[in-house]
Amino acid sequence: MMMVTDLMLGLLLGIFLLVPLSLKWELDKTVTFPAIGIIGVLTGLVVSPVAASLGLPGWGRIGLLACCIVAVAGALLMWRFFRDPDRHCAANGRVIYSAADGQVIYVKEIKEGAVPVSEKKGRSFTLHEFTGTEAMASSGYLIGTAMTYLDVHVNRAPVAGTIRLLNHIPGRFLSLKNPDAVFQNERVATLVKGDEIAIGVVQIASRLVRNIIPFVGNGDQVKQGQRIGKIRFGSQVDLVVPDSPDLRVLVKPGDKVKAGLTIMARY
Q1: Which residues are catalytic?
Q2: Cα–Cα distance between 199 and 264 in angstroms, integer?
């Protein structure tokens, strides 16, 4: 009977402790909700005999269950975040791959001569870093990809070419919900100049981020799909894609994408 009680307590505590965080961090519900249920039940299954052997009273059981649930969930979250899987990117000089894992949040047209305007949580800011570069030589598109704590945070080169710009702004780690925060949050603007096209990659840090780690430098040659940097925890990556007569953007808001695997556009 006590085992059943501990299983139910584990499930309820898992829902009480983890569901609000899952919603706050906008994690994928199809992944997190089943995981929360499994974590709660399995924690109750493991903790029950331990609590019985220690003779813990009711509140002691609840405290032990809560601590174990938080510890297990934290360990799984860190495992998801720190993953860096090997990926085979099929090199193709006529396609642009995603630079990040996550969900496409917008595909915006950039008028010729205009500065790209990125968005986060409904707030807008301009990407002045690419002014005067090949990525803004004409009209084009701005493709934003939002990343959560569950996504792989290693970013990859969307095209093969030379790093012509790498602008690393340390920032002050403010929330991107503040419309001015992007000018103080850490971000890295990278321009990859290929044989026929130049693509801008903007790595934007979020409130809890401590740093963005570039893996490349100005003048480096990169292969398509090569790792170019990593962002710590939740963030956003935008692609600045110049237009051409035969350019076709293949993704739309809501699409799930993977760095070095998902084709964002073809030209």
Answers
A1: 235
A2: 12
Select from 188, 201, 204 the least CA-distant residue to 124. 204
Q: What does the DSSP assignment read for the chain?
A: -HHHHHHHHHHHHHHHHHHHHHHHTT--HHHHHHHHHHHHHHHHHHHHHHHHHHT--HHHHHHHHHHHHHHHHHHHHHHHHH----------TTEEE-SSSEEEEEEEEE-TTPPPEEEETTEEEE-GGGTTSGGGSS-EEEEEEEE-TTS--EEE-SS-EEEEEEEEE------TTSTTGGGTS-EEEEEEE-SS-EEEEEEEE-TT---EEES--TT-EE-TT-EEEEE-SSEEEEEEEE--TT-EE---TT-EE-TTTSEEEE-
Residue found by looking up tokens 């800011």 in the block: 125
pTM above 0.70, yes or no: yes
**What is the crossing angle of helices 58-82 and 2-24, to 10°?**
40
Using one digit for the tens of pLDDT, what is the confidence trace for 69-97?
Answer: 999 999 998 888 888 999 999 999 899 99
Rounded to whole angstroms, the Cα distance separating 112 from 128 reads: 14
Q: State the amino acid at position 46 in one-letter form.
A: V
